Amino acid sequence: MISCTFLFAQEPVGGYENALQKLQSTKINVEQLYTSFNVSKEEFESMEGSPYANETFLKGNIYQGKELATKNVLLRYNALADEIEISKSKESKEYNALIKDPNIYVKIFQDIYVFVPYNGSKEKGGYFNVVTEGNQFDLYKKTTVTYKEPYFAETSYQKDRPAKWENTIIYYLVGKDGSFYELPTKRPKVLDVMNKKKKEVKKYIKEQNIDLDEEQDLSKLVTYFNSIL
């Protein structure tokens, strides 16, 4: 698992700007994004929801292992493409994607994103947001976004529905051995995932009135689970 104890290393030889160049892959043009969905810039920006975890680029840091690779970079997470995007300025219409590597992770404001391969494959892997870390289990969040096309009414009884972005969030209990356990929102199934301390967890959920649909409560539950293992 990724440790959140960030080490601010000395500036790399050649500076952070040169280091950043080595961490970038695909070049993205924002105009191509509009074209791919067959919408104008205005339509894209007015759609309900968003493909981004943070709409605007925010300053963040990129780490390799436990060392700081480059700092104060403009970053945002694109959940639709499952990419960390890098921009030179907030006004730029072109930006790059961070290379996908399990040894590279980012901190965008307070959010930490790690890349996890799937069965050893980077192509099938994806980014996860680290919500809580523990001595035996961490809480990860995976956000996926899908594009819902507009619907045009066919009768006077129906209404047009504009295009929108639809978010799906799944939480995972992640073991230090790299094992992933999906955390359902139903209490009995959560207890099955935490069956090592099922009785204690059940009691804690009831006493603390834990809402499994709330991230803050899930984080609290995982912290408690770690404390009794």
Description:
The protein is α+β, with helices and mostly antiparallel strands. The protein is 22% helix and 38% strand. It contains 6 helices and 11 strands. It has helices at 15-22, 30-36, 41-46, 187-193, 198-207, 215-227, and strands spanning 24-29, 58-64, 67-78, 83-87, 94-98, 104-108, 111-118, 121-132, 137-148, 164-175, 180-183. Strands 1-5-4-3-2-6-7-8-9-10-11 form an 11-stranded antiparallel beta sheet. Strand 2 (58-64) and strand 3 form a beta hairpin. The protein is globular. Residues 1-16 have low confidence and may be disordered.
The gyration radius over C-alpha positions equals 20 Å
How do the strands of the widest beta sheet line up side by side?
1-5-4-3-2-6-7-8-9-10-11
What is the H/E string?
A: HEHHEEEEEEEEEEHHH
- Beta content comes to 35-45%
- Please give the count of helices: 6
Structural class: alpha+beta
The termini sit apart by 18 Å
Oligomer: single chain
Summarize model confidence as the mean pLDDT: 86
Helix content: 10-25%
Which regions have little confidence, pLDDT < 50, spanning 5+ residues?
1-16
How many strands? 11
Major β-sheet annotation: 11 strands, antiparallel
C-alpha geometry = globular
